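Quick start: what a row looks like.
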Amino acid sequence: MKQKFPFILLSVVAVAMVMTIANAVIFEQVRAEGKRQAQVHVETSLRLFWHLLHSKGKGSYFHEDRGRLLVGSYVINGNSDVPDEVLAITGNRATVFMGDTRVATNVEDRHGRRAIGTKLTSPVYDMVIRKGLPYRGDARVLGKPYVTAYDPIKDASGKTIGALFVGVESDRRALGLKVVAINTAEAAIFLSFGLFVLHIRRRSADAIHKQFRFLQVLLDTIPSPIFVKDRAGRYCECNVAYEEFVQVKREDLVGRTVHDLWPVHLADQYHRMDLELFAGGGVQTYECSVKSAAGTHLDVIFLKAVYRDAAGLPAGLVGVILDITERRKQERALREAQSDLMYASRLAGMAETATIVLHNVGNVLNSVNVSAGIINQCIRSSKAPALRKAVGMMQEHRDDLAAYLSTDDRGKLLPEYLAKVVEVMEMEHQDIEKEIDALIRSVEHIKQIVVTQQRFAGTTSIVEHLQVRDLVSDALRMDADSAAGSGVTIVEDIDEMQEFSLDRARVLQILVNLIRNAKQAVCAREGSGGRITISAGVVDEESLRISIADDGIGIPAENLTRIFNHGFTTRRNGNGFGLHSCALAAKGMGGSLTVHSDGPGSGATFTLTLPIGA
């Protein structure tokens, strides 16, 4: 018995040493695995953090505005909803930094309050803010050890303007307690494991095989060709659709490369794209035209992504081929249809422009007719024949003209008669001169209308420095014939203003149409008389506003939304071109034309608004 004791003691010591070493190894492995799992967890939480913020900003860039950090229109400063959502989902703390300052966080200071306004410290500050690079690993956050993940926040120009943080607090004592618990249960687990290992391996193998078959069936039900390659570019898996695409069975495809399937120029292109994907990672998308193994020319999109092994290194790629041949045909047909539609629209636009020109020229021709009529009346009622008769009488007595003018009864009246004739003819001359001037200005306006409509097809606009009062006067004069005998009273309420840079032809076109429509609305109501008020002034030092209000028949509510539509009219002899062309002209000057009416019998007000300098 005494001989066995040293052996037993030695065995116990040896076992204790082995268990101590094993415990140390297990502790380090558990610690390393715990740290790795924690890092993976915070990495996943950080991606969730990015996703939630981009959802708030609807995919927009981060930017700074007046001392605030925003993503899109979502203000981050002082708004910890997203960090709290990350904490609720993952259990990890989260922070948004603007520059190096916490502006949204659920990390707490020593008083248990949100640590808003505290600073980011080195070495994280140097890596993330100064260099604009991510940081992963252990770091102290307000004096406490954390497993952390930091990403820089960059604006649209690539400038670093802040950072995102997700972390979990390290608890080494808790980790040690876990190791003790593991060691305590180690013996029992070891014994149990020996009994169940064969059974588990068999069930695991069956489950893996069943899962593999399910995935294979799932792949085969997808109609788009799918393939898998290893790091060397060799095919290792595909679905039925890819077999049909390359006309090669799956068992014959495995182990082959693109150079075994495709012509050299295509194989080189595919191989080059694979190498670029392995070098850059992520997802690769590109379009090309291919010829399938069946000889059909196809337009396709390649979608490829790298998959990685347990060490995080590229292990291969998965690719999907999307056939967009039919879509390309439809796009070509759509482009042809759009081209035909544009041509038809151009013809329609030319016809509409011609109609508008004729309508506006017709308005001005009314004033031309008025001027021509007045000139014709002046000529017909001219005193020139009487003057000719008086001159004839003087020529008959040219030999005794002095005696004739002083002694003859008719000769004595001749000088006074000539004076009156001259006075009347001077008045006739002034009237004719005035109407000729009006006629010239009307013809000039017709020319401007034509030039303006020609400019609608281009991008130029000719402006002049003009007084609004003068434009209103010209518009009233051009429409003077429609007011004759109507009994309509026109009131001008125009503020004293400086000259503005305006497109004379377009503004006159609008005013003439609006004044004529207002007179027609007033004359169409029951009873005589009526009133039109033309007012003009500057609004907010930015816009010129000209309003033409009448107390005519008014406009029903259902017509207010379509009164500017091409071809819309309520008059029996109307054509629906005038207001439509006015709205186009206002829009062409960067302004607007609007209408208001309280309904039938309440009159209407049309308002032209133009930016100053239009």
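That is the whole record. DSSP finds 16 helices and 20 strands in the chain. Residues 444 and 505 are 10 Å apart (CA to CA).
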